[in-house]
Amino acid sequence: MASGSSAGDAGATDGFTLMSITLENIDKSFGSFRALRDISLEIPDGELVGLLGPSGSGKTTLLRIIAGLESANAGRILFHGQDVTRLHVRERKVGFVFQHYALFRHMTVADNVAFGLDVLPRRQRPSAAEIRKRVGELLEMVQLSHLAGRYPSQLSGGQKQRIALARALAMQPQILLLDEPFGALDAKVRKDLRRWLRNLHDELNFTSVFVTHDQEEALELSDRVVVMSAGQIEQVDRPQALYARPVSQFVFDFLGHVNVLAGEIADQRIAQRDAWIRLPEAVPSGAAQLYLRPHEVRLQLHPVDHAYLPLQVESISLVGAEVRLELRPCGWDAPQLWEVGITHAEYNGWQPQRGDRCFAVPDVGHLFRPDCASPGTFYWG
To answer: How far apart are alpha carbons 152 and 158 in whole angstroms?
Structure first.
């Protein structure tokens, strides 16, 4: 592909300009609603970053401000050290991929990919031969060159999204932005496209930011994940570190299922009605919540010396590498059903049924107390 334009001393690879992104104290309000609150973030050259959070957390607003589709009320945006805060979206050289493809129904696949190039001012527009060459290379890259003459209505959802990505890449953007790019696709297609996009990113090494509310998608795709809540950044980290060391209850709650025992600490035990767990070290008395991930808990038919957590089997799912059990607390309360995974061998030996009683045995727990900003982690056994 032809070499793209550069800013500052950014390096280029395969026609794409490596471009870092710096956000400084970004604020955005819509009327009386403050959508973003003093957001600062550094995204290095060539990194694939996921913006993860629930609806209303501000992630799409932040993406649109990076693109220039929205203006911030305060703060600065820099691409590789160059202030682009007041640059129009056309001048930012950003590729944008939407959730619902936004393909032109009356144009062929090839014409859709070429569209951005065809409408450039004459002095910036490549020759017709160069446009055809670039479109051909992109269709080959997204493995859809055999569909060049078809129309969007003749494509599957996954094919449409790859064409939308090829169209964005045709402009040789400095940065690629994706807003819920796989949200309209079914689970299997979504997983296949995630793997394909990750491989494409590793091959081309462009800087990319994508929005998602899917925790698995963010953890699988991203070099780093930015977890957002109520217009603020809760935590930024690599996926493995984010999962291993969440800094807040919000991040813990958002990154998959957690089992919770909420109670009072006294005499080195956290207890709520019939349920209790003895902590392996002394902790000040008072209200607390103990978080246990599904893989940090075992199930037994009898309680152990350091824990009494009676549960009743509510549902059993045998799909996947493990058997997932949903369990209802007996004689105590939890904000949601507990979830624990057991191996198929354990399931075959136990043969649990709905309504059966069992006991949870904690191996690792994360204790949140009102007077501590971060959790304490405990290990048993």
So the answer is: 11
